[in-house]
C-alpha cells in the first residue's frame, strides 16, 4: 500500500512538474525546460518498474495520464506549428504524424497492459514502457526542432 502511494505521489509530482516545465516560463530557456522534463520523465520511467501485477490498474491509469499529458502537449506544439510558415508546416507534418502514430501504439500497449495476465505482466509492462519512452523521445526531439526553427 505504501508503495502504491509512493508511485501515485511520484506520478503527480512528475505531471505537475512537467506541466510547469512545458508552460510559459520566460525565465528558463527551452533547453532548460527540456532538461527538466527529461529528468522527470526518466524518474517516472524508473518508477514504472516498481508496479506489480496487483497494481496493474494503477499502472494503466498512470500511463493513461502520461499519454493524455503528452497528447495535450502535442496539440499545443501542433498549434504553434500551424502559426508558422508553410515551409515549416510542410517539414513538421511528417514529424507530427510520426508522433501521433507512436501515441496510437502506446494506446494499444495500454490496452495490452490492461488485459495482461500475471504470466505476461512483466513483458507487457516492458513493452508499454518502451512505447512510452519512444513517444517521449520523439516528442522532445520534435519540440527541440520546433524551438530551433520557430522563434519564441
Oligomerization state of this entry? single chain
What proportion of the residues form beta strands (DSSP E)?
under 5%
- The end-to-end distance, rounded to whole angstroms, is 44 Å
- CATH fold node name: Four Helix Bundle (Hemerythrin (Met), subunit A)
Structural class: mainly alpha
CA-based shape: elongated
Mean pLDDT: 76
Q: How many DSSP E strands?
A: 0
Indicate how many domains the architecture comprises: 1
Q: Count up the helices.
A: 5
Based on the coordinates given, report the CATH architecture: Up-down Bundle
Order of SSEs, N→C? HHHHH
Radius of gyration, rounded? 16 Å
Q: Helical proportion?
A: over 70%
Which spans of ≥5 residues are poorly predicted at pLDDT below 50? 1-28
CATH class: Mainly Alpha
Name some characteristics of this structure.
mainly alpha; Four Helix Bundle (Hemerythrin (Met), subunit A); 0% strand; disordered N terminus
How would you describe this protein?
There is one protein chain. This protein is mostly helical. The chain has a single domain, classed as Four Helix Bundle (Hemerythrin (Met), subunit A), CATH 1.20.120. It has 5 helices and no strands. Helix 1 (2-22) runs parallel beside helix 3 and helix 4 (86-114) runs antiparallel to helix 5. It starts with a helix and ends with a helix. The relative contact order is 0.14.
Amino acid at each position: 500500500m505504501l508503495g502504491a502511494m509512493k508511485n501515485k505521489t511520484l506520478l503527480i509530482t512528475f505531471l505537475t512538474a512537467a506541466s510547469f516545465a512545458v508552460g510559459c516560463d520566460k525565465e528558463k530557456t527551452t533547453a532548460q525546460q527540456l532538461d527538466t522534463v527529461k529528468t522527470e520523465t526518466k524518474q517516472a520511467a524508473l518508477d514504472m518498474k516498481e508496479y506489480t501485477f496487483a497494481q496493474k490498474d494503477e499502472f494503466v491509469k498512470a500511463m493513461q495520464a502520461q499519454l493524455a499529458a503528452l497528447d495535450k502537449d502535442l496539440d499545443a506544439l501542433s498549434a504553434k506549428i500551424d502559426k508558422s510558415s508553410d515551409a515549416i508546416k510542410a517539414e513538421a507534418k511528417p514529424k507530427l504524424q510520426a508522433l501521433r502514430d507512436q501515441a496510437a501504439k502506446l494506446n494499444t500497449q495500454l490496452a495490452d497492459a490492461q488485459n495482461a495476465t500475471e504470466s505476461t505482466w512483466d513483458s507487457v509492462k516492458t513493452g508499454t514502457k518502451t512505447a512510452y519512452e519512444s513517444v517521449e523521445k520523439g516528442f522532445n526531439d520534435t519540440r527541440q526542432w520546433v524551438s530551433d526553427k520557430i522563434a519564441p
